[in-house]
RNA sequence: GGGCUCCUAGCUCAGUUGGCUAGAGCGCCGCCCUGAUAAGGCGGAGGUGGCUGGUUCGAGUCCAGCGGGGCCCA
């Protein structure tokens, strides 16, 4: 009997069931290399409407992490989708080379002592590091299957790019919004250098904690009613850094907190009610009474006497004042604190800066001049004790930032920095924000908030690895010189020789002859050594990249980054483009959530819950990572974990095997010659095509809305339900047992071919490698593109059949589930252990029966029911007692019985006709006909 | 502490303008098949919709508060 197996058209394909993805992907990627796919696609889409996705540059300072992998794959999905839709959608990847992360990577890699190394050498080492990691990351991104112009990416350290940044700066200067001012920065007095946040290490340190009286001169309005004798009333202030008191210019209170006037045996004190008890016990006063209360807001403008400097200081409002510690009255020294500084800016207070680079008090420090800040601490306390303004002093241990190199405690010190005044662009910026499409929509709200309360932008950094700020200082008086001429020369020099040219060009080459200091008239200058904030560089990418490359255009259609970039790249690119180019740099901004672990916590190397994309690619394959990207909703927080990847692997298998089944049944199909015209197709095949046509419309919509997870979930469901459970299952009988060239079989193959090619196309943006592999295993046809990525987006609208689809949805598809249940009941009752042993009798209206028979035909109705035979038993009422009661709109009952007919050796169906032909005693009549034909 | 945001079965997602017993796939358990076979089919269990209160004839869907997670600030 097994002889008949040879007469069947069993599926055949080289498309393996197990993918061995890592191996397959490299083979496919090699193929892409060979045909220069990126160029091919670009050439093909040349002339199409441009769609510019501008790549946000990652730092070139290490291997790519999962978030970056996610980001690039998403961009790849967008770009591939767009090109298949006919757009000219180039993808130019970029890297952010400058800045502290790379400088630190270089210091680590080369074990550099940054206090000894010459800046030029540190720049060289940093450049080397950056180049190295650009190469590493490029390979890693390519390994993910990301298609782009990898041969000519943009690098922020390219001289051309650097020159463009300086040109943007030039525009800023033209607008007159660049100025030099004071700003407190973390400063290491040992190393005498500014420190970035990343260079701080927090550790325990001892400080002097002091409670200090700020005697009241006047209190605003009648906040506390009638005050007792002035002079006997003080604001109680607490601080752990007495050495910052010489720079104090104000006391801050919270506008909404309640403040009280407290009477003690000796005096009256003012502090927050919420801290009254703590403060009193700290300063050792047991007997006191509250005599009046007022909201902090009402105290604004009160005048106090500095505890030892003699000057008057105002009471100001600040919402960062809390009840966690202290008295609720916060000592404010704009020169020594970031918040203090902003408060000072708001009130127009002076920024006192009495410390030099070594942390030693200058003349401005008055009687403390010459003392280091640590030496001054006790002296200041003594001074206040003598003047009677000290209430309490004690040692205090707390977490305090230390220098990462020398481990000494750092200080906050006001230094001169370059700023950009953004205030006059705020209205324009908000206007542009409204023009942009933010996805998801709440992005607008978020960026609006940031634009609205944006302080002036400090663009200078005291670092080495970056683009120099092309300004000068007078050698005589130290006054800065902002000159368009000088910037112009810098642009030219940098364009030729890179950033180093600014440092190496003789000063005469940078200073136009006749230049003189605006302040003292001096004619000798030295160059600025500070560099730009890296955000200024990357924020200029729209100009440096979009405006300079012929394959791109300004502004971009899309920026796509993590939602941390609202404050970062999105915002700073916006200001930069607004001031530099007069408009927004993007039309749409799409943001992704953050990659979290399975418990929803952030991923970090420290927690040890980070997943390395390189591991995923090596162990599971890039396709799994790509599928994961479309498995989750990337706009929300993104949960990850090995179990999630396992699920993605399962999902991949389902997709792959469904595709494999279709491919394997197309082994003898020639789409050019054997495709069956729509009118001659079996109805069930047309139903399947209507289903996929309908699916395709939804998928296209999902791509348009950047809802890629909808693509995955809908395709997966389609493969599992419409195909595996229903269509492919019922097709087997026809595909395997019918004569190879019979129109009925070709009809099925036509449908399979349309579905397979369409699915391969619509999944290409996501499963690029697998779809390419499918493409290579499909039966070839006239005009088939070399790569599926060169194909057009499928249009299956011709296969839509509204009437048929509706009829099936109502009257046919629901039957399948009912049949399954009826069969299950037979199995439960042990009527038939195997469904193929059974026959079903449907008890329903004649009309209902006709609908099913006309839709499927008797053979396929049985196949779809999973049994050997199906017949109409009669009206519902005629059904036997134990018949299954079908659910649904119309009444139907399904009875079943075990067939006594023999099983056909060929088609496995139990048919009465088995054995009627003496030549083939084991076959049913249908199989005899096919075999003898 | 502030701005924005998220919280539906073990997991990832659906649920149209508030309206019938809240769905899918995966996973799990049981069965069948061995002509998709390191596949495939059938069935089953599994949800106080983060919690509390409110608006409404009716809320997963609207409002308020609380709890937990995330990003960015502080």
Which features would summarize this protein structure in a list?
933 residues; alpha/beta; 10-stranded mixed β-sheet; 4-stranded parallel β-sheet; 29 helices; 17% strand; elongated
Which percent bin holds the helix content? 40-55%
Shape: elongated
Average the pLDDT over all residues and give the rounded result.
Answer: 91
Judged by helices, strands and strand pairing, the structural class is alpha/beta
Largest sheet: 10 strands, mixed
Annotation field: number of helices: 29
Write down how many β-strands occur, each being a DSSP E stretch of 2 or more residues: 31
Rg (CA only) = 38 Å
What are the segments in which pLDDT stays under 50 over at least 5 consecutive residues? none
Separation, N- and C-terminal Cα atoms: 19 Å
Strand content: 15-25%
